[in-house]
């Protein structure tokens, strides 16, 4: 039985063996704590033999050094710590621990010595590793050399903890933004990131990845972590939204809910906004915009004006009392139509399609019919139902027809040449007075009556011979 007591601890505990084939080994620190629980003793040396290798009975393949500190720990007073001398025996895995020169060699009750194998790579095989101790002490019975063993357990390597917290540095990106995806996880994994249309491996040791360009639409990224030893895989996903998504095609089966739709490029950044009353169109400056379409099927249009596609095209404006037709310059314009069904027209004049066509003007006392040149024109009609006609003359349809002129005394019936009075042919006439030079029967060779100052003459046929008066009575 040794004079001193030896207890072993590990950090971490339990001690996990390294996994064969992984990039890094399990790293640990082994503490050998020496205490005195029996009686006063002086210590000369403590030698510790460490099993070195990669097997089940080994601590690790390489034990570079051991460190030691002795702590004087009186029951009353403050504890003090001093380093001890630790030397590795040449060609061996034995570390010899001795007090520093001139130090007290008495190992008092309550004092303790801590020997430390720090940050060692643990062997790859699980099992029990035993450290052998040889102590040299002196007490009232003399010098003694005694041996003991202390053991530590290496557990089998655990599966690598699954990665976690796969996240973007921006949940919403704009065009031109940079995007970084990062996560927490072991360096033992082989990482790659999957994205629509491809995948990319992550450099060893990195816990972050950056796509070449920010996504143009909502994009889901998948982190795949693969254990190179067991080939077990872990999957994490995260989704990044685009503030102004660019879609090659959009099919909505039940509808789209959005407050507005806007173009992507600056020159086409018009916006369609949905209001409670319908929609509003804005240009990229924020002012009211323009709708360009081949056709529009609407129940109604409320607008201040309508104009052709060119800036100098005609324009229709809508004042409260109707509508105004204007040219692109702003002056009054022309309405072109096949037909117009109107209750009334207020206009200064009406003219045919050509500039030299006749036209009708509307003075206060009626209407004037004029030729294209401005002189009086002709009214052509099949019938005219009038309360009265004021005219200088009336003529038949042909230019050689007779005509009637209206003088202050009455009317004159004239032949085509206008120099002689001609015949008035009627079925029946009731007149108060007839002034005429001659009266003749219906036929040209009928007798005729001429009127002289002294009275009248009765002639026969076409000549001037005296004719016959026929009468029932003559008074």
Automatic annotation (TrEMBL):
Protein name: Uncharacterized protein
Originating organism: Actinomadura rugatobispora
């Amino acid at each position: 039985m040794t004079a001193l007591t030896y207890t072993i601890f590990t950090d971490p505990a339990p001690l996990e063996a390294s996994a064969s084939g992984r990039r890094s080994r399990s790293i640990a620190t082994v503490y050998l704590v020496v205490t005195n629980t029996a009686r006063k003793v002086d210590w000369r040396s403590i030698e510790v033999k460490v099993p070195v290798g990669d097997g089940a009975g080994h601590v690790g393949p390489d034990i570079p050094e051991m460190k030691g500190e002795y702590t004087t720990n009186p029951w009353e007073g403050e504890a003090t710590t001093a380093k001890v001398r630790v030397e590795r025996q040449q060609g061996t895995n034995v570390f010899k621990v001795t007090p520093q020169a001139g130090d007290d060699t008495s190992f008092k009750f309550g004092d303790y010595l801590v020997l430390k194998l720090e940050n060692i790579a643990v062997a790859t095989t699980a099992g029990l590793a035993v450290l052998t101790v040889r102590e040299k002490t002196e007490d009232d019975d003399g010098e003694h050399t005694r041996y003991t063993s202390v053991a530590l357990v290496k557990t089998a390597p655990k599966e690598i903890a699954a990665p976690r917290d796969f996240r973007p540095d921006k949940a919403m990106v704009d065009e031109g933004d940079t995007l970084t995806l990062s996560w927490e996880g072991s360096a033992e994994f082989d990482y790659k990131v999957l994205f629509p249309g491809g995948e990319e491996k992550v450099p060893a040791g990195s816990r972050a990845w950056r796509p070449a360009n920010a996504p143009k639409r909502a994009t889901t990224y998948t982190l795949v972590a693969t254990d190179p030893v067991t080939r077990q895989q872990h999957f994490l996903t995260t989704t990044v939204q685009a503030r102004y998504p660019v879609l090659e095609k959009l099919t909505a089966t039940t509808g789209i809910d959005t407050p507005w739709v806007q173009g992507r490029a600056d020159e086409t950044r018009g916006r369609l906004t949905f209001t409670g009353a319908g929609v509003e169109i804005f240009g990229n400056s924020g002012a009211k915009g323009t709708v360009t379409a081949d056709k529009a099927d609407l129940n109604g249009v409320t607008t201040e004006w309508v104009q052709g596609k060119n800036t100098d095209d005609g324009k229709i404006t809508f004042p409260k009392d109707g509508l105004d037709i204007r040219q692109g310059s702003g002056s009054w314009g022309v309405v072109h139509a096949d037909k117009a069904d109107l209750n009334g027209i207020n206009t200064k004049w009406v003219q045919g399609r050509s500039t030299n066509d006749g036209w009708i003007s509307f003075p206060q006392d009626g209407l004037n019919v004029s030729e294209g040149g401005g002189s009086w024109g002709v009214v052509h009609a099949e019938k005219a139902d009038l309360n009265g006609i004021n005219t200088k003359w009336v003529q038949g349809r042909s230019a050689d027809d007779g005509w009637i002129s209206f003088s202050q005394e009455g009317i004159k019936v004239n032949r085509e040449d206008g120099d002689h009075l001609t015949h008035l042919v009627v079925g029946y006439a009731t007149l108060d007075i007839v002034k005429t030079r001659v009266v003749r029967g219906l036929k040209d060779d009928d007798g005729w009556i001429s009127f002289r100052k002294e009275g009248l003459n009765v002639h026969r046929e076409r000549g001037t011979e005296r004719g016959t008066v026929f009468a029932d009575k003559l008074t």
